[in-house]
């Protein structure tokens, strides 16, 4: 027996012919198509980590700014609150950082973890860098460290069965909440 589809009033299909509800994430298509991805390896080749600090903090999703590095939200997060810490300088490899950059990236990472615990009650974290395309870096030309908050049971059936990640909050709301909980230096 086929079920009819219905419109949710905003032009979206809520239930398919198979009777299953659908979650639509059209913003992910930009990531899939590689939009906003640099077209080269230089800082002037569309690097989003060079562009973000030039924007206002809300527009660039910037959480905190230091002298040599900054923290911002991931535009395509794995979990709510997924943030990254980047040097301002366009460098690709961890060994290219100077002492001040290394120290500030560490301090911003600690502040991000503190803010995520305070704002969201994160129970654990995945912290790390993918250096080079072979290691899985989506933007290999500009070093960035991921800080992904985790909770017990946060991997549920949606990513496994539906290849869909459910994020309960818009990025602007996440940014506001984390900024409010960011440690004052």
Task: Tell me the layout of helices and strands.
Blueprint: H1 28-33, H2 48-51, H3 57-60, E1 62-65, E2 69-73, E3 83-87, H4 99-120, E4 124-128, E5 145-150, H5 157-161, H6 171-181
Antiparallel strand pairs: 1-2, 2-3, 3-5, 4-5
Helix pairs in contact: 4-6
Largest sheet: 5 strands, antiparallel
Give the strand order of the largest sheet, numbering strands 1, 2, ... along the chain: 1-2-3-5-4
- The CATH fourth-level homologous superfamily: HIT-like
Beginning-to-end CA distance, first to last residue: 62 Å
Output the CATH topology. Answer: HIT family, subunit A
So what's the overall shape?
globular
Total DSSP helices: 6
Could you tell me the radius of gyration in angstroms?
18 Å
The structural domain count equals 1
**What is the H/E order?**
HHHEEEHEEHH
- Tally of strands: 5
CATH level 1 name: Alpha Beta
Low-confidence stretches: none
Strand pairing plus helix content: what structural class?
Answer: alpha+beta
Mean pLDDT: 82
Strand content: 5-15%
Helix content: 25-40%
Key words describing this protein structure:
nucleotide binding, HIT family, subunit A, HIT domain-containing protein, 6 helices, 5-stranded antiparallel β-sheet, globular, nucleotide-binding, 5 strands, HIT-like, alpha+beta, 185 residues, FHIT
Structural write-up:
- By secondary structure, the chain is α+β, with helices and mostly antiparallel strands.
- The protein has a single domain (44-181), classed as HIT family, subunit A (2-Layer Sandwich).
- It has helices at 28-33, 48-51, 57-60, 99-120, 157-161, 171-181, and strands at residues 62-65, 69-73, 83-87, 124-128, 145-150.
- It has a five-stranded antiparallel beta sheet.
- Strand 1 (62-65) and strand 2 (69-73) form a beta hairpin.
- The longest helix has 22 residues, at 99-120.
- It is globular.
């Amino acid at each position: 027996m086929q079920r009819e589809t219905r419109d949710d009033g905003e032009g979206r299909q809520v239930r398919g012919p198979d009777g299953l509800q659908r979650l639509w994430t059209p913003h992910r298509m930009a990531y899939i198509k590689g939009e906003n991805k640099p077209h080269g390896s230089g800082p002037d080749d569309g690097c989003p980590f060079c562009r973000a600090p030039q924007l206002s903090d809300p527009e660039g999703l910037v959480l905190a700014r230091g002298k040599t590095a900054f923290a911002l939200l991931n535009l395509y997060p794995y979990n709510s609150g997924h943030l990254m810490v980047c040097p301002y300088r366009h460098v690709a490899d961890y060994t290219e950082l100077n002492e001040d950059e290394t120290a500030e990236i560490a301090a911003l990472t600690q502040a991000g973890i503190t803010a995520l615990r305070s704002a969201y009650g994160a129970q654990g974290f995945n912290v790390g860098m993918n250096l080079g395309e072979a290691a899985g870096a989506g933007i290999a030309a500009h070093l960035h460290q991921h800080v992904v908050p985790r909770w017990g049971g946060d991997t549920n059936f949606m990513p496994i069965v539906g290849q869909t990640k459910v994020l309960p909050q818009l990025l602007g709301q996440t940014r506001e909440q984390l900024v409010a909980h960011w440690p004052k230096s």
